[in-house]
Amino acid sequence: MTDHVLSVEEMRAAERAAMDSGVSEWQLMQRAGGGAADWIWRIAAGRAVTVLCGPGNNGGDGYVIAETLQRRGLTVTVVAPVEPASETARRARDGFSGEIAKTLVSSSGEVLVDCLFGYGLSRKVEGEFAKLLELACPSHSIRIAIDVPSGIFADSGEWLGASHRYDHTLALGAWKRAHFLMPARADMGNTRLVPIGLDLKDPAERLSERPRIHPPEPDSQKYTRGLVAVVAGEMPGAPLLSSLAAMHAGAGYVKLFSDHSHPDAPAELVIEDGALGEALDDERIGAVLIGPGLGRGSEARDRLRAALNSGHNLVLDADALHLLDRAMLDGADPAKMVVTPHDGELAKLCETFDITATDKRDRAIGLRDATGLTVLAKGPDTLLAPAQGGVVYFPQGSSWLSVAGSGDVLAGMIAARLAVTGDAVGATQEAVWLHQEASRLAGPSFTAGQLADAVRAALALFL
Ligand SMILES: NC(=O)C1=CN([C@@H]2O[C@H](COP(=O)(O)OP(=O)(O)OC[C@H]3O[C@@H](n4cnc5c(N)ncnc54)[C@H](OP(=O)(O)O)[C@@H]3O)[C@@H](O)[C@H]2O)[C@@H](O)CC1
Ligand SMILES: [K+]
User: Fold this and answer.
1) Which of 170, 222, 231, 371 could be a cystine partner for 253, CB 3.0 to 4.6 Å?
2) Tens of pLDDT along 357-403?
3) For residue 169, what are the β-bridge partners?
């Protein structure tokens, strides 16, 4: 239940279903406001609180929060520029026993609780509401957004109006897409979910669950444990990095198909040169990775074609994403493939496959639907569009991952997990989690090589 990620429409439907089953809107608001107040009370730790209340039910939650905190002994100031517009919000306002100001008086409190607008935001935040946020956000040292920061469109994560930074965001009832999408995510601070007892079923979109990685079976040998083939091309460095990451991510055997000499490669990495088609004929190969350092010339194209026609599970990254088109996919099995574009590569793929969507989620879905590929759209708001449908989001990773070679490491790990499990969607999620955990273990300002080294210790945390 805590892993559902809902659209505004789905959220409204879930609340309607709760009401149909006999829970009133007032009860839902009590649960939402009361649950949020518990978090705020702890965060505030005795400091004075300012609550901004808007016209809708987000504002209604604000009155419930204000009353709960005041009863617990905190100094609470409520600022509401307009009257409540819904009956339930009016009831909540009437239940608040303190004073209500129309505008913010200076130094009202140290903790700001923003309940101006939630998922009901329908247009740009302007006028008195915009001015209030402009005044209140910088003048409070701790800023807490209730459900979503006011001004964020919950379905897309875009700001409708000026952006403001929050220290905490308390999602009510279920996660919304904005909690995992940029630019919203960067401004939300710590995110927490406040359950309100909604009965949610079969989520189309969900948060990735922390995976459990299984050790090799007792009767494993190096081939059955997962043989990864990394196909190199023009540049030697990137595929070597991918190979190292694959070696640490649980593969039994990693081969690098490369015509370069790799003096820095560890002795355990098997490097083979010569005809790629023949090398890929090995039935024991569990997954092929191609793209890092591949190049974009005619030879690179030939190598990509050989990989696509090999019939193996396949991870396509970097240059391979620039070369991929409909003709190349002809005859290949997209169900066995994962593509891992960052924003620029995703835009290029959308151009290639005539997808007109402009935001990341819709582009990833569009590409998946047009090709049948599993699409991992990388970045600070990495999301996965599995071939089977739906969308999977991930908890926020370290911003130190924004380093050259980080994608090569991730691609190597996906190939390793895919070779081990044969499950493209599961393998990709495992690799994203490993990537994030490895970044934490590598500490700040690591290089991609150090990140690849940390993968082994990261893997131990998922056993
Ligand atoms: N329903 C439930 O069971 C539960 C709901 N819960 C809570 O309710 C929240 C959703 O409530 P909501 O639907 O009332 O929307 P909300 O975000 O408060 O705002 C809508 C109001 O704002 C107005 N408005 C919009 N944009 C505007 C703008 N730019 N500038 C000015 N005005 C603007 C809009 O006016 P209108 O567009 O109708 O003209 C309308 O009056 C949700 O996030 C959660 O906190 C929880 O308590 C759990 C139970
Ligand atoms: K809000």
Assistant:
1) 222
2) 999 999 999 999 999 999 999 999 999 999 999 999 999 989 999 99
3) 145, 191
Residue 82 predicted with pLDDT over 90: yes
Domain-terminating residue out of 172, 189, 204: 204
Q: What is the tally of structural domains in the chain?
A: 2
pLDDT in tens, 408-431: 999 999 999 999 999 999 999 999
ipTM surpassing 0.90: yes
Ligand 1 pocket by Cβ (under 6 Å) = 15, 25, 28-29, 32, 54-59, 61, 85-86, 117-125, 129, 146-147, 172-173, 196
pTM of the model: 0.96
Summarize the confidence of residues 287-302 as an average pLDDT.
98
Q: Whose CA is nearest to atom 38 of ligand 1?
A: 122
- What pLDDT sits at residue 91? 98
Residue 189 is assigned to a structural domain of this protein: yes
- 237 among the known binding-site residues? no
Mutate which of 51, 58, 198 to test ligand 1's pocket (most atoms within 8 Å of Cβ)?
A: 58
Residue 277, annotated ligand binder?
Answer: no
- Give yes or no: residues 171 and 231 share one domain: no
Together in a domain, 139 and 32: yes
> Token digits for 257?
């198909």
Q: How far apart are CA 45 and CA 48, in angstroms?
A: 9
User: Does residue 210 belong to any structural domain of this protein?
Assistant: no
Q: Is the pLDDT of residue 108 over 90?
A: no
Domain around 66: 5-204
Q: What is each CA distance from 338 to 288, 322, 384, 429, in whole angstroms? A: 10, 15, 10, 11
Q: How confident is the model at residue 9 (pLDDT cuts 50, 70, 90)?
A: very high
Residue 215 lies inside a defined structural domain of this protein: no
Mean pLDDT of the chain: 96
